[in-house]
Amino acid sequence: MSSEDQGKRPDDGSDWQPRIVAFLCNWCSYAGADLAGMSRREYPAAIKIVRLPCSGRVDPMFVLKAFERGADMVLVSGCHPGDCHYTSGNYHARRKLPAFRELLEFVGIDPRRFKISWVSAAEG
């Protein structure tokens, strides 16, 4: 194992950072992340943001592919319920995303590595 690979191991106690893929709603969560950036708040470079029109558009395959490609954690974040730009997209997400945990468990991925959150653009 190269020294570069050793720095990424979670059990070595050093500078390991989890690789996180964040699927963010364009209208709220992405806008909040953008506001945080404009406010010069820093977040780790290991976070990869995927901008989507709505959290309701997240497909289970997006989540599985992120894990397949090495993500340590996947986050899906959208507008607070009742604030969706598309009226009910986040309600669709809220209904179907918990089923993702069952799918992850079925394929052998710890479902605690998958998170859902609701963020307003103003929360930055």
UniProtKB/TrEMBL annotation:
UniProt keywords, alphabetically: Iron, Iron-sulfur, Metal-binding, Oxidoreductase
GO MF annotation terms: iron-sulfur cluster binding; metal ion binding; oxidoreductase activity
Pfam families: FlpD
Signal peptide: none
Domain F420-non-reducing hydrogenase iron-sulfur subunit D: 20-124
InterPro entries: MvhD/FlpD (IPR003813)
Protein name: F420-non-reducing hydrogenase iron-sulfur subunit D domain-containing protein
